[in-house]
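Hi X.,

You mentioned you wanted examples for the new student's onboarding notes, showing what a folding record looks like when two proteins sit in one file. Here is a clean example. The first protein comes first, with its sequence line followed by its structure tokens.
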Amino acid sequence: MQVTRLTNGVRVLSEPLPDLTSATVGIWVENGSRYERAEQAGISHFLEHLFFKGTARRTAAQIAQEIDAVGGVLNAFTGKEYTCYYAKVLREHLPLALDLLADIFTQSTFAAEEIERERSVIVQEISQVEDTPDDYVHELFNLAFWPGHPLSRPIAGTAETVARPRPHRGGRGARPR
């Protein structure tokens, strides 16, 4: 594996596998649920969802269509320590995968209507975990093992923290009220 540090401090890890016809690329960000305050619980996961809802160049449908057209996968996951945005494609489609990841990661618009729509999607996800004993037992274990610590909280937050509107702070993609 090769480790390269860019002039802006970003670390790039790469490992050429010339016998493979596919490529996987990902952006790993140190912003998992353990870094959230109690009232922010679930915000990292929430943002992970929003990155796929449209950019300055592409709608959510265009993002999905472009990756589907080449048989690729574009997805993300949030953990306690980090969030990862990744793409898997045939080697010849690596430029598209890189472009899509860069676009969603740097040009997402975070439209107000998408934020509101995604609240209900995530609350539904939370309910599904609570209705699945083999998933929910992990949530209960974390609550008991890490009492009062950010690691005790569910990665997706709670229905209450996700449903709570956050104060408007401006910034990229923000709309004045």
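Then the second protein repeats the pattern, sequence line and then tokens:
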Amino acid sequence: MHFKSSLSNLNISIVILNKNKRTVYISTKDYLKSKEDFQLLFDSDKQILITSPQPDQDKLGSYYEDQSYISHSDNKKGIVPFVYYLVKKRTIRKKTRLINKKLGRIGTLLDIGIGTGDFILSAKEQGWDVSGIEPSDKARGQASNKGLDVKKGLGDISHKSYDVITLWHVLEHLPGLQRTIEQIESMLNPGGILIVAVPNFRSFDAKHYKEHWAAYDVPRHLWHFSRESMKKLFSKDLVMISKLPMIFDSFYVSLLSEKYKGNRLAIPKAFLVGLWSNISAWKTKEYSSLIYCFKKQI
């Protein structure tokens, strides 16, 4: 059964899937590596988009094996990697200030999906007792060379608990979403802080770029979140204490999106779209990416 909808002001063809009662929100592809086609299914109960089909877990790692996958490398050559490096350098300082402010003291920190480890390295230098999770052998090796305690998976440290757990653009990558969230919650100390940063598929830049929106990043991103979904995914033991915008993300994501569209004037166009996305979000609060801060009840 097919019909047309103006969902979110987009001319998207909606398909009712009788089996699981989910709808096709948009069709896109893996622009980074495989060029394979995927659909994003809208789950109305959780207000979340789900990548379909999702690769088998043993094959998922192959989609990250590309030199242009920036978060697994310290490479600064080229426009996009250099912009990423500048943004990362600035945001690391903001991240460490945030965990210091939210917890109010130095404590134990677990960062899930550390990439090459620069964030927890900065936290370690400030006195934090840090641990990290990174499934990528390449990125984990670079982080370990910086003197960091890095494990491959949550199962390696499930017996420990932490004052702060952070996931900076990582939740969207994790298989078994609800089960993994429950495991993360169980590792957080009472009164502890959980910080989750994710892209927002209801942002202006997402609507503008549609299937070319770089933050869909299928199939590496298995899930795609809205502000509403972040209220529904976590248990009542976690209280959302604040939401913060990631201002620079709209510019970086727009730059990648323009690249995927093949536009020659990528930089000026990306700047204008990123700027307008942030301006419009002052009213709507639908920023390109948001940081959600939760506190575990005592």
